[in-house]
Amino acid sequence: MKKSLLAALLLGAATVAGFAPFGIFPLPFVTLALLFLLWRGAQTPRYAALIGFAWGLGFFLTGVSWVYVSLHDVGGMALPLAATAALLFCVWLALFPALAGYAFKRLAVGSAWRDTLLVASSWMLGEWLRGWLLTGFPWLSLGYSQVGPSPLAGFAPLFGSYGVGFVLALMAALLAFGWWRLRSLVLLLVLLAAGVALKHVSWTTATGEPVSVSLLQGNIPQSLKWDPARLNLSFDTYRRLAREHLAQLVVLPETAIPLLFDQIPHGYLRELAGDRELLLGAAVRTGNDGYANAALVLDRHGSHGSYAKSHLVPFGEYVPPGFAWFFDWVRIPMSDFGAGAKQQKPIEIANLKVAMNICYEDLFGEEIIRQLPEATLLVNLSNTAWFGHSLAQPQHLQIARMRAIETGRPMLRATNTGMTAAIEPDGSVSAVLPAFAEGVLTVTVQGYSGATPYVRIGNGGALLLAVLALVPALLHKNTKTKKQ
């Protein structure tokens, strides 16, 4: 028993190498197959749950270790408290693969093909639940590991990241439960070939005139950004970067200037914009003395469009009920935002219709598509300085690449410390600035129109696949029960 739990823990930790920045995308296919074998060999559903929990603990302690960096190194929380909070968070996340393991073993029927479908369904539904429950945390869903050059990325415009995860789990199960059967190997090859073929399908088409865009990365450390004595550092840095790079549109990252929007001198904003349009991340006042995390479009005449972040980060942007004590131990400026409306129109900028998303909103594909197919471009504004030198930045860029593939739209990312990038509709990164370096990324971007199947049905397609995959095992169980 101990050997199985240790093996699961190590397999979970190793799976992280399948994601950015390592990018060994075939690795999750192998580690998941080995996990499924451990589940199949478990004597009871409870033991399968323990194996899933051990896998999840190894996976999340390794993959989201940046939570500790955010709390302790940047947020200033005492080491024991930060370590405990990070551990408890990973324990919570590990419950979802534990639940998947329990469900599989509880419903397994001993038939290779039924159990193959069952385990893929259990896995995907566990990931979907993690991305939904208590506002959700779909970071490191296995589908994200498969954005190019993996052939499985071809399934993303149809079924989204969860659907890609389902196909990955299905292939892992075919390897685990039927590798010696010719039909299993044939089906593996068919799925790979289908993914390759789908990658060559153009779901959307270019529209309108290309627009030049300068994405500004100020690289101002979080420890200095909110120091009132260093306010001029933000002013001077972004003024200089905007002057040195001419483009039709200038984009600043999330809360680039550490003031409420109405506290930023209008003359400074007009100077930044010049004869161009300016997209700025800033905190704005709302009714009832509240404020929102927003993106605003400006030119020399003032603001003419805005977006307010609707999916807020628990503990980072709002205080969940009963957790006010948490903020006595961690220093998070502007940590109680109000949420924007769920349904917001794309912002019109420089002849483009932009679907805005701020910080980790781009984790939620079904929320991004609310502004589609009307929007022709995706833009993300982030301040990833909170995560220091960790895996968070390359992982976040990988997530953005998945959103581009799902929607068939380019994605531009403007960040404070990295990774500022331009992403093509096929998920390839056409240009990126190095992390933790001041710089400007000037690119030419083309809007795209049309709708992928995912834009039209969201996560419904992946959920339908998972539910249908449950049916053979459930029917077999029901038939067996009636005979008894």
TrEMBL record:
GO MF annotation terms: N-acyltransferase activity
Q: Mind telling me what this protein is named?
A: Apolipoprotein N-acyltransferase
Keyword Secreted attached: no
What Gene Ontology cellular component terms go with this record? plasma membrane
* Gene3D superfamilies cross-referenced by the UniProt entry: Carbon-nitrogen hydrolase
The record ties this protein, via PROSITE patterns, to: CN_HYDROLASE
Keyword ATP-binding on this protein?
Answer: no
